[in-house]
Amino acid sequence: MTDRIYQTIVSKKTAGKKSFAVLIDPDKVDEGKINQLLELTDKAKVDYLLVGGSLVVSNHLDTVVKQIKKHSNTPIILFPGTPSQVSRYADGLLYLSLISGRNPELLIGQHVISAPFVKQSGLEIISTGYMVIDGGAPTTVSYISNASPIPGNKSEIAICTAMAGEMLGMKLIYMDAGSGAERPISEAMIKGVADAIDVPLVVGGGICDPEKAYRNCKAGADVIVVGNAIEKDSSLIMEISNAVHSVPVRL
Q1: Can you name the residues that pair with 225 across neighbouring β-strands?
Q2: How does strand 201-204 pair with strand 124-132?
Q3: Which of 4, 104, 116, 186 has the greatest number of C-beta atoms within 10 Å?
Q4: Would you tell me the crossing angle of helices 61-71 and 31-43 to the nearest 10 degrees?
């Protein structure tokens, strides 16, 4: 296992550069749609491709990852909803610990089950403190995890949770309002968390236009993740990528 992807993320953060990741849910794509997406992501110079979802019921994760690998050189990072969502054909894996909830299975329990397979996969493992923020609508991850999200107006809880995750050794903090969020994470909360931690901050959920992506980056997000909005309108890939990459460099 190497840390090539993580070091790239850290290097970009150190240089004040922002990154854009497109989330691909294997349940929602077929071969034709994947090829169309990859043409757009390559043209838009998307930095990372996240692959995964809360359920992944289609059982063709390997097929999707191999197809992406065949047609794109963009790093593929798994975004697993369960321990079974691991493909050795990817480049890296966000090893998510749901630090915003109090379900021990998603803090460490499922990691114990998946550890031998993950260790043998050869993937770059990136320990990630995963924080679900209330986006105004029930999310699959909240239902599956049986954990309440952090209220969207309680920045102090998010800040302290992120700080705890960093001090516990998490390499990334990922704040997610969930797929199709009615209220994306506020810039005030993003700024508060970004100012309180040194590790890279990933933000996703409810980002459906370039302006919101730009403001999130200005507030302190290092990586912007968009999935649901792109599923509805793939032309947003270029617009959001341009917005993210146009944020002025701040050292």
Answers
A1: 21, 204
A2: unpaired
A3: 186
A4: 40
The top-scoring range by mean pLDDT among 70-84, 110-124, 138-152, 159-173 is 159-173
Do residues 121 and 85 lie in contact, with contact meaning Cβ atoms separated by under 8 Å?
no
Any residues with CB less than 8 A from the CB of 191 and at least 6 apart, and which?
219, 220
pLDDT digits (tens, 9 = 90+) for 73-94: 999 999 998 777 899 999 999 9
What domains can you pick out in the chain, each with its CATH number? 4-245 (3.20.20.390)
Q: Which is nearest to 25 in space by CA: 230, 177, 187?
A: 230
Q: What is the C-alpha separation between 206 and 48, in angstroms, rounded?
A: 19
User: Against a cut of 0.85, is the pTM above it?
Assistant: yes
Tokens read off for 84: 């079974």
Specify the length of the chain in residues. 251
